Amino acid sequence: MLHDRLLVEPETDAAERQSTAGLVIPATAVGSKRLAWATVVAKGEHVRQVDVGDRVLYDPEERAEVDLAGRDYVLLRERDVHGVAESDEADGSTGLYL
User: Fold this and answer.
1) Is Chaperone one of the keywords (predicted)?
2) How far apart are the C-alpha atoms of 15 and 31, rounded to whole Å?
């Protein structure tokens, strides 16, 4: 990757989700999402805030899709990332940094 570019693998949604209260939400009831999560698989040399393996929050409307070896990836600039979820290795919890 060059400059401030990130190559991310978007997370795929399951057909059905379950709410925190235990209710099953069918796939037909899900509205359009504004932001989506992805995992960083490669980064350019000028990327400062994000590391490979981090989960990032990005706008799926503003993206460039890439197909590499039959897998779909998204190419982003670092400034297009809205948030980073980094895992804390001490207790395994996740913190969200916006």
Assistant:
1) yes
2) 13
Give per-residue pLDDT as tens, 8-20.
998 876 555 666 6
Q: What is the DSSP letter of 71?
A: E
Burial 33-63 (b: 16+ CB within 10 A, else e): eeebbbebeebeeebeebeeebbbbbeeeeb
User: pLDDT tens for residues 31-87?
Assistant: 566 788 899 999 999 988 888 988 999 888 777 888 888 888 999 998 888 888 866
